[in-house]
Amino acid sequence: MRQISILWAAANGNEGVMGLLLERKDLNLDMPDNKGRTPLSHAGAKGHKAVVTLFLDRENFAAGNEHEGVMKLLMQRDGGRTLLSWAAAKRHGRVPDICPDLADKEGRTPLLWAAGNGHTEVVNLLLTREDVNADMLDKKGRTPLSWAAAKEREAVVRLLLERQDVNPDELDRRGQTPVVWAAEKGHEVTVKLLLEQGSVDPDRPEFKGH
């Protein structure tokens, strides 16, 4: 029941409930649902920035008598403090109990979901992590940029194109690149952004292996 609660709280963006659940030590924070999606995946897909931040700044608050609880932290967040800054002030160590790049059964990571749904702030948060692959391929061979381009998520496309570790001309298993997806959907601004990248070839032949 507790595992269902954390999936529900993440998907619905309930920061208060999530804060309480994160105090517990008996929860698997990466436990997937029947589609292989983690609580972070659901929060990222819905654009719940505050909940995503709670996950990414996950700390061990049960450190001796200094433990003051996540709810006190949540009240402090209005003052510009994050979980990480509060924990650092209390000298608590990080707990490596969350993998922010876990893929679901379709091979889609939290970043892929957030990018495809146009949640720029969440995408930006995830990209600050060294353990998040900005160019991860799902089982269809599609990247975060591919999904963002196909769905006309202009701000996300711009953000991803700023990175050197993102291939703007990645060919998926259908034989299409991000610019082909954008052109097929009629997204002129996105097509223009992609064509401004010197490495994008609009006449690239389709991949014949699949």
Q: Total number of β-strand segments?
A: 0
Strand content of the residues, in percent? under 5%
Measured as a percent range, the helix fraction is 40-55%
What is the top-level CATH class of the largest domain?
Mainly Alpha
Rg is: 19 Å
Low-pLDDT runs of 5+ residues are 59-95
Count of separate DSSP helical elements? 12
Q: Look at the structure and give the mean pLDDT.
A: 82
Q: Profile the largest sheet.
A: none
Distance between the termini: 42 Å
What is the CATH architecture term of the largest domain? Alpha Horseshoe
What is the SS-derived class? Answer: mainly alpha
Q: What is the third-level CATH name, the topology of the largest domain?
A: Serine Threonine Protein Phosphatase 5, Tetratricopeptide repeat
Total number of distinct structural domains: 2
Overall geometry comes to: elongated
- Return the string of H and E elements: HHHHHHHHHHHH
Question: CATH H level of the largest domain: which superfamily?
Answer: Ankyrin repeat-containing domain
Account of the 3D structure:
This protein has 210 residues and is mostly helical. It folds into two domains: 3-61, Serine Threonine Protein Phosphatase 5, Tetratricopeptide repeat; 69-209, Ankyrin repeat-containing domain (Serine Threonine Protein Phosphatase 5, Tetratricopeptide repeat, Alpha Horseshoe), CATH 1.25.40.20. 45% of the residues lie in helices and 0% in strands. The chain has twelve helices and no strands. The protein starts with a helix and ends in a 15-residue tail after the last helix. Residues 59-95 have low confidence and may be disordered.
